[in-house]
Design a protein that fits this description.
single chain, about 220 residues, mainly alpha, 12 helices, about 0% strand
Amino acid sequence: MGLGLLPLGLAFGVLIVHAGLPWWCASLFTAVVYAGSFEFLLVNLALAVTPLATVALTAFLVNVRHVFYALSFPLDRIPGPLGKAYGTFALTDEAYALTAGDRARSWSGARILWLQMFMQSYWAGGATAGALLGSAVPDSLRGLDFAMTALFAVLALDAVRERRHDLPTPVLALLSALVARLVLPGQMLLAAFTLFTAALLIRSRKEPIRNREVPIRSREEESRA
């Protein structure tokens, strides 16, 4: 994960200095904002002296997907109010993808927090290094902008491998994305997440009752044994 976040942070740091902002803005944005794609947008918003209301609305539209992440993120395992506050603040796409898998169900709250802190360190460290070395990096450098695409491609492949038996879920996700692209192309992400969530809820309600009784019967058999 760090190998994906580090070059992406470098690209962000280079963008900061090439946009004319001081290098320390890279460290400030990654420490305080820490919102991935919105940070790239924030550079242009800061240069245009955009009103705070517009910045807030843009941040909401870009990061509204985190509302859906919170439905299944294991925040209850994280101890203490400060830990929960940081866990909520550092809930990124990458953190959610790693903690949503089956192998993460046994992870402690401390491990989840350390995972989030390490990922932010990779991102902030890469951005700071990119900003400090930005003048030495040419504008024509290629490949850094593909780091995000490659990172999410790896996460998607890992998710598919862990859930090979659950083919309908990726199919529903693909259909939701296609419908959102056709109906609301300007708000595709928000529409796709909403459709996908609704589809999952409908599917869960239509599951046969006998499938839900299997775990109960197995527990009864174990108790008798």
